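Subject: Interface between my chains keeps coming out wrong

I've been trying for a while to get a sensible model of this assembly. When I model each chain on its own everything looks fine, but I need the whole thing in one frame so I can look at the contacts. Pasting all components below, labels as-is. Any help appreciated, I'm running out of ideas.
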Amino acid sequence: MTAAPGTEATTKAAPGGTAAPEGDGPGDPFDQDLLPAPRNAQFALLGSLLAPARARVWLAAVLLVVQQAAVQVGPLLVAYAIDHAVPALRAGRHGPLIAVGCAYIGCGLAAGGLQRVFIRTAARVSQDVLVDLRGRIFRHAQSLSLDFHERYTSGRLISRATSDVETIRELLNDGLDELIEVVLSTLYIGVLLVVLDWRLGLVTVASAIPLYASVRSYQRRSMAVYRRRSTATAAVIVKFTETMNGIRPVKAFRREEPNDAAFADLNHAHYRANGDALLEMARYVVGSRLIANITVAGIVVWGAYRVAGGGMALGVLAAFVLYLRRLYDPIDRLGMFLNSYQSAAASLEKIAGLLAQAPTVPEPEHPVPLPARPQGAPPGREVVFDGTRFAYRTGGEVLPAFDLRIPAGQTVAVVGATGAGKSTLAKLLARFYDPTEGRVLLDGVPLADLARDDLRRGVVMVTQEAFLFSGTVAENIAIGRPDSTRAEVEAAAKAIGAHDFIAALPDGYDTDVRKRGGRISAGQRQLVAFARALLADPAVLILDEATSSLDIPGEQAVQHAMATVLRGRTAVVIAHRLSTVEIADRVLVMRDGRVVEDGPPSELITASGHFADLHQAWRDSLV
Amino acid sequence: MRLAPYVRPVRVRLGASALVAVAASCMALLIPLALKRLVDGPVRDQDPGGVWLGGLTVLVLGLLEAGLFGVRRWLVARPLAGVEAAMRKDLYERLQRLPVEFHDRWASGQLLSRATMDLQILRMFLAFPLVFLVVNGATIVIGFAILLTQSWLLGLVLLGPVLPLTIVCWYFETSYALAARRAQDQAGDLATLVEESVLGIRIIKAFGRHRSQATAFRDRSRQLWGTEMHKARLLSNIWAVIMTLPEIAIGVALLLGVREVADGRLSAGTLVAFLSTALALRWPVESIGFLLAMSNEAGTAADRYFEVMDTPLPPDTRTGTEEPAAGRRSAGTGPADGPAAEEPAAGRHPRRDLSGDPGSGGEGGIRLEGVRFRYPDAPPGSPDLLTGVDLHIRPGETMALVGATGSGKTTLTALLPRLLPATGGRITLDGEDIAAMPTARLRHLVAVAFEEATLFSASVRENVAMGAGPEGADDEEIRRALAIAQCDFVDRLPGGLDTQVGEQGLSLSGGQRQRLALARAVVGRPRFLVLDDPLSALDVHTEALVEAALREVLRGTTALVVAHRPSTVMLADRVALLSGGRVTAVGTHADLLRENAEYRRLMSGTHQQAAEETTEQDPEQAAGQATEQGAGEAGAARAGGEPRSADGELPALEGSEAR
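Reply #2:
Try treating it as a single job with all components included. I did that and got this:
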């Protein structure tokens, strides 16, 4: 009956969807896909998604009820025609026949027309819901703090926003209205049959019991199979993607043959699961068909027996046979709908869990503006850590109570071993996290009280991982300031020494980084990231290991830019390489979350502390 | 059809399934006939006893129909899943053997959609359209034959909408498939945006770009909304047609039928049978359109699949993968075994120099002669990236490769294991031209650590062991390699060596990944080692430790190390400077620092001077002053020929340093 494509289970597997990676430790809810959420959060979510479309939902419901009535009246008219119109015609009266004929055709037209309106209304509802849901996930994911992102991992977040929404979309697009239609038509037909002839009607209703059992058993069995198949699909996809993305190491280490074998195994597992799923489907179809056909035969026998005995009209029997056909037709598809319904419910639950996470770095309710800089003053701003303490939620205090004042315009280098708390310091200053205790102040205003736009005009951070967004190189630089002109973008690139390599790319600034991103080296990506920061022109600049992949001329271009274009800005520089330290006005040596040495570089070098040792080691490496 | 080789193993079953399906459809069509016999026979004659026979017929036909349905599905379920799997396997194996340039050109998502969606479409094509076009065609013909024999007038009335319905459905499915594809693309774009906004969350937060991201997101999701609504409109139209047309035909047939029954020209049973046959025929008629559209789509899918499969393999790959012989298996156990294992294949080069003594062995080591390279998609008119590299790395020697950003260092490292083929010139390993070597052998000899340390979703053990090639490495070897790369953090991982890492596992820091990649490169004790900036993500302490351990390893191998920093250069015996597509200078670090201005700029820049100003007693000072002069001359000489803006910035930097 259906002309809609994709009713035969189109399973698009989610890359990395199902397999839960190992997490921080036992008992951490972030280990699971499902985040702790208030009970029934998914229903609340569904309710709030449907709320704006309430009128349409009711309209759709009414349309469907009327439409199904129009559809199901057909066989009844046939019965009437056989039992009443024929005798009437034989008696020379044409009225009943014409009435029946008009009614039948009218119902057909009404059914078609209403169906058309219903599909449009339902699509409008479901598409609005999807847009709303996607938007909510997106905005929520963006507003959640880095703390959350680091623990929940990007893979899981991405599969929430893509494959889970996709499952819901599949249900809404390909199944839900049909599922409701089936339920509604079953109800109609059941009632009609019982009314037409309660004995035969009850037999039909009774057949629902084994059918229900068959659907349930299919559902139970197929769920396991489908789950196995989607796991197998995900495994195939992960292996495939990983191989293609890492083709260089694959080739260099001659992984082709071991990979062939590994992939063949995964592929075979997928083949088995796929076959099992198809067979399970076959079992179900055969089972339900059998039940349906046996019922039809039973009703035909009993009905015919009674018609022959004169206890029932022929037309009623005809109507029964026609109704039964309609009743059992969609059963093949019912099992499939139930499957997609179940997975959509699971997806909704996961999404609800995600949306229930409260952002730990919230926007201020009453933002305080940054004080205006006096005319002619340097563009930098003063930074103060006031009794700041920071501990990760998983435990482990990183910064014990910490006080630090960085005067406006000062360049501070922070050095120390891995885990000394340098990056935490930077992240607190960028307000990626909020301190557990105490405050971080920018020109006397707590960061937590600044509106996001003000905060980002004030503080910009460049990190070690220089991620490029899809789009052109110019667009990537313009992220620093979206309203900037091409000339400004190029000026920023020139100032940082990135212009030469960009100009040498096939399309210069208009080169798409995704298409040729493979050939933009790590160092070049860092230069792009710097150009971004330069364009943003912040009052406070944080560099967190941002020069690790740069070669020395690159690093010097950065230092040069800081000394010229960014002169007068407050800067916090974290670096392994001590070369960066040379341009600093002040050096902080950190250990175990504390500043153990503090002073101008020239002083610290001549002193006999950690910094002097570090500096000596670095000098040695330069020989 | 090019699918033939894949379909051949299942063609018997496919054919059988078509036959069975036709039979099942016939059963379904016969049921109304049995019904008619029942109604016109025992029922009319008021013979309750005769009902049983008719009922039994209906039952048997029903059971047969259900059974045949099952048989059909059972016949094709596994074989078709098998076809899909076989095609996927072939695609994967082919893709692994296609050259790196191919992968540079094709996004992995494109390849993935061929391996999943397109193959699924093809499987569904084999399962449905291929079989059902035949079956439904047959059903329609048989069904209408039955209808026409029952009553040619009513039959003709019902036949009326068939052709328009088929055409409308086909037209609809074609435009629907287009819209669906567009929706899919837009959904893909949206997913990309989401992915990037999650992966780039630090940058978005650091620059406060939530709003522009959100705007982009909203725009794209509105676009998708529009397409989906377009789809819904198409769908609503087709449903209206599909529901209305046949109902009108049946309604007319009902009118005429009732008249004929009343006139006694038609039996009541015939009318009942007629109407239920008409219902049974609805699906076959409606399906023709969408089966045709699916076939269309399958055609496209097949084209996309074979587009990849038809890309020619590089000539020797095939033999290369078959060749890795057992004789080389022992090569991983120690450098001393190397020559013995290599002998059979490289016997025509009698002189093997493994003494590690630089200066001996003109043939040995790594030799590049006039090597040229350009990317196939480089804009026409642009110069080659490498314009004639000449370099000789003596056996046992470690050569550092230094050059400005974008000078082609990483590309050069890809040429040695022939990940990219040189477009000109010759590269020899111990005198043997790599162009003539089987790939497997070449890559057995040369181990690489890439700038971007890619770990695979596997245990630490497997990730490191794969460096030894398919032969693998034992735990002792792995421990040794981990020790060299200072991977002591491995012991603190939750599962030690068995901890899962990579995309699906524990995420490691950049430095940790880099050290594991280094361990992977050295685990097989390769004869030739290529390291691309192997220490960039390490902090100063770890770097020093890794260096010390790495020196031991490098002593026994011939190595090329890309270096950005003096500390990495210190690993090497000599340094080569890559500039303007060729090696312009070779020498020790100290020599080059003294003699070559560009090198000095790359390695120390103004630090040299800055440092000298602060540390007066530095013994290097004298040399430094000499170089300063040289730098000025060389800089001036180059300024005309080679536009490098960094040169221009030099004075400014000095100025700022002096401040």
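Reply #3:
Confirming on my end. The first helix of chain B runs from residue 4 to 7.
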